[in-house]
Design goal:
Blueprint lengths: L1 E2 H11 L4 E4 L6 H7 L5 E4 L3 H15 L3 E5 L3 H5 L1 H10 L3 E7 L15 H4 L6 E4 L6 H13 L5 E7 L6 E2 L16 H13 L3 E5 L6 H14 L3 E4 L13 E5 L5 H9 L2 E5 L22 E6 L13 E4 L2 H8 L11 H14 L12 H11 L5 E4 L5 H7 L8 E2 L9 H11 L5 E6 H7 L3 H6 L5 E6 L4 H10 L14 H7 L3 E5 L5 H11 L3 E6 L11 H5 L3
Parallel strand pairs: 2-3, 2-4, 4-5, 5-7, 6-7, 9-10, 9-12, 10-11, 12-13, 13-14, 15-16, 15-17, 17-18, 18-20, 19-20
Antiparallel strand pairs: 1-8
Helix pairs in contact: 1-2, 1-7, 3-5, 3-15, 9-11
Length: about 550
């Protein structure tokens, strides 16, 4: 006989869980008590949104569901920010929510929420476990749902009285992963399409990749001399110095690359849905009927034909497709080989940062320094905002699982992701790239980094504004500034107040020694860069945008 709380922890252990991220609550004390005797590491966070983002990051970097525990009501609603990211980014995670007791439902009891209604359109599956004896069944099912087809978040509500019930239940077993493979007719159709193509292009994206799959896919790109790009914030799916790499297909795409994709006669879309942002509002590929022949590879059949009608639909995971495609080869030297070389050179020019700009800090020079000193396996974590453009465009990702950034455009993601990434990979360097507005949305998780001795380096680009919104404001309502100014703390002092290392950079040449001191400190660190708000993009100032230049 075991309690519901013990059965939850048993099911997590059976499914290979090594850590959970949580904010404690009285609604799931029985689980916390069971974790006391478990080898599972419990990471105590400062806000439920941050905890859920950490779980999302684990799912993003490993392909295994990240696990988050929060309490009912406000805890559950706070966590929704991370659940939304996991949904839009197709990352596996499981959110456990302590719930009110079963006997007082439908009275609007203390912190009562109907989670099936609240999370119904956001999660892949929402379940409330009323019978503790079904915990092994339902938790194992949650792992299967979170990882199969298009991965995503699962929400499990746990009534607090159910967690203390003593029941006889079957021993939990690990879930069985589901791999969907490409059939021979589909691979033959793809090869036939490539043999007839003159201007093909490959776009890699989505989840369910592995390091071996990326290696196989990149080898196939080189064998076929195919030009390829990565979908928005999926740049770690191809070595950016690979001879086939043509650039990021996302926000602010290289105009030369966009023109090539629009004029392509065949697009091979592998692993991604290619939504509004990477498709430039559905203009690179028109929805529902693209101008190009489209071969769409995706692990969930419900997404094939949902937004784009494909010429060839291949229901397969990226890993299985990469394995199958690795067995193909062109019949002769492809007609597009010279174009592939040209597109790669265009990318190298596009990703070379400018060395000048407004103000006393020039971000181009800082990016050049970081490219020289960061190891290839460094993990870059960021949230959303114009600040991200510098890393997004000018950092050349070389290895698999080195990027943790939300395709959903959620602010505040970088610091929680950095905490999770460093806990997952303690021997790898983790850099959090943040804006001032972005950082303060979940900056309190810096305390979590300090508590667990996780020496992430947070670089904050502080320009005193919500930069992306100001950019749009100046473009659409020039000179009418409203709701975008910020008054910020001393971020270096903030770091020291938590027990971390703090640096302030006000001139370009101050960054390199500040970064080295942060590294040597062995502590979680914040480097605040005082950035002129005029430096709103790498190529245009706020004044340029305001005046329509």
């Amino acid at each position: 006989m075991k309690t519901g709380g013990q059965l939850i922890v048993d099911a997590l252990e059976a499914n290979g869980v090594e850590r959970i991220f949580c904010v404690p609550g009285e609604s799931y004390l029985a689980v916390l008590d069971a974790l006391y005797d478990s080898p599972i590491k419990t990471i105590v966070c400062r806000q439920e949104g941050g905890a859920a983002m950490m779980a999302d990051c684990e799912g993003r970097l490993t392909g295994r569901p990240g696990i988050c525990f929060v309490t009912r009501g406000p805890g559950a609603t706070n966590a929704s920010a991370g659940v939304h990211i996991a949904r839009q980014d197709s990352n596996p995670m499981i959110l456990f929510i302590g719930q009110i007791a079963r006997g007082i439902r439908e009275r609007e009891a203390f912190q009562e929420v109907d989670y099936k209604r609240f999370y119904g359109d956001m999660a892949k599956w929402v379940v409330e476990i009323d019978d503790a004896s079904r915990i092994p069944e339902l938790v194992t099912r949650a792992f299967a749902v979170a990882t199969s087809g298009r991965p995503g978040p699962v929400v499990i509500a746990l009534p607090e009285d159910m967690l203390t019930d003593l029941v006889d239940a079957p021993k939990p077993r690990a879930f069985t992963p589901v791999e969907t493979r490409a059939g021979e007719p589909e691979i033959t159709a793809l090869q036939t399409s490539l043999d007839k193509a003159q201007r093909p292009f490959v776009i890699l994206g989505g989840t369910r990749w592995t390091e071996e799959a990326v290696r196989q896919m990149c080898a196939s790109l080189e064998r076929w001399k195919l030009p390829a790009g990565c979908s928005f914030r999926r740049q770690a799916l191809c070595d950016q110095l690979h001879p086939s790499y043509a650039g990021d297909v996302g926000i602010g795409v290289n105009p030369k690359l966009a023109a090539y994709i629009k004029a392509a006669d065949l697009v091979l879309l592998v692993g991604c849905r290619f939504g509004e942002m990477p498709s430039a509002d559905y203009t690179l590929l028109k929805s529902p009927y693209p101008d190009q022949k489209l071969v769409h590879v995706y692990p969930d059949p419900h997404e094939l034909g949902r937004v784009y009608r494909p010429t060839v639909a291949i229901n397969a995971t990226p890993a299985a497709f990469a394995e199958a495609f690795a067995k193909t080869a062109p019949a002769a030297t492809p007609a597009w080989a010279n174009r592939t070389e040209e597109l790669h050179q265009n990318y190298l020019e596009w990703s070379t940062p400018p060395q000048t700009g407004p103000g006393t800090v020039h971000m181009g020079a800082i990016m050049t320094h970081l490219e020289a000193v960061l190891p290839e396996d460094a993990i870059i974590c960021n949230g959303a905002g114009n600040f991200a453009t510098w890393m997004h465009r000018f950092h050349r990702y070389r290895r698999f699982a080195t990027q943790a950034a939300p395709t959903s455009g959620s602010m505040g993601y970088g610091v929680p992701a950095g905490v999770a990434a460093k806990h997952l990979f303690p021997d790898r360097e983790v850099i959090v790239w943040a804006g001032d507005g972005d950082f303060l949305m979940h900056g309190q998780e810096f305390a979590t980094a300090v508590q667990y001795g996780l020496p992430v380096i947070v670089v904050i680009l502080n320009n005193g504004i919500y930069g992306t919104i100001r950019m749009h404001q100046e473009r659409d309502y020039p000179g009418r500034v409203s709701g975008t100014d910020l008054a910020n703390p001393d971020f270096a002092a903030y770091a020291r107040a938590f027990g971390g290392h703090g640096e302030t950079v006000e001139k370009t040449d101050e960054f390199a020694p500040a970064f080295e001191r942060a590294r040597k400190s062995g502590k979680p660190a914040i480097i605040e860069i005082k950035l002129d708000p005029e430096a709103i993009t790498p190529t245009k100032t706020l004044t340029d945008i305001r005046e329509g230049r």
